[in-house]
Design brief:
Its cofactor is pyridoxal 5'-phosphate. By secondary structure, the chain is of the alpha/beta class. Helix content is 34%, strand content 16%. Strands 2-10-9-8-5-3-4 form a seven-stranded mixed β-sheet. The chain has a three-stranded antiparallel β-sheet with strand order 11-12-14, covered by helices on one side. Strands 1-13 form a two-stranded parallel sheet. The longest helix is centred in the C-terminal third of the chain and has 21 residues, at 260-280.
Length: 360
């Protein structure tokens, strides 16, 4: 049987050992006599699972003590509303740096609750570059400045944390969290849907500085109120218990790999060799500026568009699945998150070379 390498952008592949362990523990978790799927979320045994996951997350990302870690529902899209509802306070304006589809969607949602100031936009260049800091127009009256650390669809990633001075910095890190070290103390809030680097779809992590709690608008739904969730250990309502458990298994796996610093070096190698293969080719191309190419999502095009269908069919036959680009842009995309082994990237590169030899 051909080995499968899943290059899907999300829900994405999970580490094989994590899936195997989940399978082994599915019917009876550590002698409890029941599955995690059946556990009461406030039971002593489940509370221990949840607390360990939070502790491992705090350790891996070196989260300071004055930040709360919340495990919520609604995905990053839910946070597009939750962030302004919780952080605007008595201010009427927010600020967004637009670098692709997801930052645009976040800004559009924030517009429901007040004025949105655009710090800068890369739309004129089809979101293939991040606007240079000297082009940014910060507004001191904004409640916060939001940016998307990695644009999953477009393949644009910030290589440094933006400098916004004394303003509160907020980031959507859904597709690159835990793939590189991050100085959490630079942020007021970080949020991330789990289904790319930290677990299955259905659970969302929010890291919020404590002094930002207590500002929620009165219309904020209780499940999206950070203060209420923080005061209830993310269990104001029944949380996605199994997803939280799976997230915990992934965190344990990350620690076994040597932590985030070790994974960053692996991610650098994987992305560098794939970009190098694309750049050497006369058939494939990548449109993203060199300074902001994503380590997580590598979009590419084929010069002869008539070969696109053949490329997808042949790649699937070789066990390389989910290489099609997002429906909004087409082309191709290889998502190479933490769980993608380096051998998977090597197999993809070899396939691309052989395909070009035959048809290029």
């Amino acid at each position: 049987m051909t080995k499968i390498y899943n290059f899907g952008a999300g829900p994405s592949m999970l580490p094989g050992t994590v899936l195997q362990r989940a399978q082994e523990e599915l019917l009876d978790w550590h002698g409890a006599g029941i599955s995690v799927l059946e556990m009461g979320h406030r039971s002593q045994v489940y509370t221990a699972i949840a607390e360990k996951a939070e502790a491992d997350f705090r350790e891996l990302l070196d989260v300071p003590a004055d930040y709360r870690i919340l495990f919520l529902q609604g995905g990053a899209t839910g946070q597009f509303s939750a962030v302004p509802l919780n952080l605007m306070g008595d201010k009427a304006k927010t600020a967004y740096l637009l670098t692709g589809v997801w930052s645009e969607k976040a800004a559009a949602e924030a517009l429901r609750y007040g004025e949105v100031h655009v710090v800068a936009t890369g739309r004129a260049e089809s979101y293939t570059k991040i606007p240079q800091p000297e082009q940014w127009l910060l507004d001191s009256n904004a409640a916060y400045v939001h940016y998307t650390a990695n644009e999953t669809i477009g393949g644009v990633e910030f290589q440094q944390i933006p400098d916004v001075g004394a303003l509160t910095l907020v980031s959507d890190m859904s597709s690159n969290i835990l793939s590189r070290p991050v100085d959490v103390s630079r942020f007021g809030l970080i949020y991330a849907g789990a289904q790319k680097n930290i677990g299955p779809a259905g659970i969302t992590v929010v890291i919020v500085r404590e002094d930002l709690l207590g500002r929620a608008n009165s219309i904020t739904p209780s499940v999206f109120d950070y203060t209420k969730q923080a005061n209830n250990a993310s269990m104001l309502n029944t949380p996605p218990t199994y997803n939280w458990y799976m997230l915990g298994l992934v965190l344990e796996w990350l620690k076994e790999q040597g932590g985030i610093a070790a994974l960053e070096q692996k991610n650098i190698r994987k992305s560098a060799k794939l970009y190098a293969a694309i750049d050497r080719s006369s058939l494939y191309s990548n449109p993203i500026g060199l300074a902001c190419r994503s380590r997580m999502n590598v979009p590419f095009r084929i010069a002869d568009t008539e070969l696109e269908e053949r490329f997808l069919k042949d790649s699937v036959r070789e066990g390389l699945i989910n290489l099609e680009g997002h429906r909004s842009v087409g082309d191709f995309r290889a998502s190479i998150y933490n769980a993608m082994p380096e051998e998977g990237v090597d197999v993809l590169i070899e396939f691309m070379r052989e395909f070009e030899r035959r048809y290029g």
